[in-house]
Amino acid sequence: QVQLQESGPGLVKPSQTLSLTCAVAGASITTDGYAWNWIRQPPGKGLEWMGVIAYDGDTYISPSLKSRTSISKDNAKNTVYLQMNSLKPEDTGVYYCACQGSPTSNFGSWGQGTQVTVSS
């Protein structure tokens, strides 16, 4: 029942910052136990988990991305955000947000994804 909708710029120049939005409907992002993830998929590659923010605001970012990636949320807007700086062409891909109902559960709900292309 949870509905997720990613949005953001389709094209980002190298070295610039990516800011993506995940609008959530059907559940409060503060619902106990819920966690909100960002996952991406480069063209022709597999899914890469990027990071997560829990209902209480606790975050964990993939070590490979931690230095330049942050996840935040705005409870009043029921919205989750991804920010990644120093974009590189290899950051190109489809970016998804996904919801977990508990820390160990599957990603039960996914957004449709949003294409991000890093190019000058």
Provide the descriptors you would attach to this structure in a database record.
globular, mainly beta, single chain, 120 residues, 11 strands
Structural features, described:
With 120 residues, the protein is mainly beta. The protein has no helices and 11 strands. The strands form 2 sheets. Strands 2, 4, 5, 6, 9, 10 and 11 form a 7-stranded mixed sheet that branches. A 4-stranded antiparallel sheet has the order 1-3-8-7, with no helix packed on it. A hairpin with a 6-residue loop joins strand 9 and strand 10. The N and C termini lie far apart (39 Å).
Query: Rough shape?
Result: globular
Number of strands: 11
Order of helices and strands: EEEEEEEEEEE
- Helix fraction, binned, reads under 10%
- Provide the low-confidence segments as ranges: none
Main structural class: mainly beta
Number of H- or I-type helical stretches: 0
Mean pLDDT: 96
Distance between the termini: 39 Å
**Largest β-sheet summary:** 7 strands, mixed
In short:
This protein has strands at about 5, 10, 20-25, 35-40, 50-55, 60, 70-75, 80-85, 95-100, 105-110, 115-120. About 0% of the residues lie in helices and about 50% in strands.
List the helices and strands and how they pair.
Blueprint: E1 3-7, E2 11-12, E3 18-25, E4 35-41, E5 48-54, E6 59-61, E7 69-74, E8 79-84, E9 93-100, E10 107-110, E11 114-118
Parallel strand pairs: 2-11
Antiparallel strand pairs: 1-3, 3-8, 4-5, 4-9, 5-6, 7-8, 9-10, 9-11
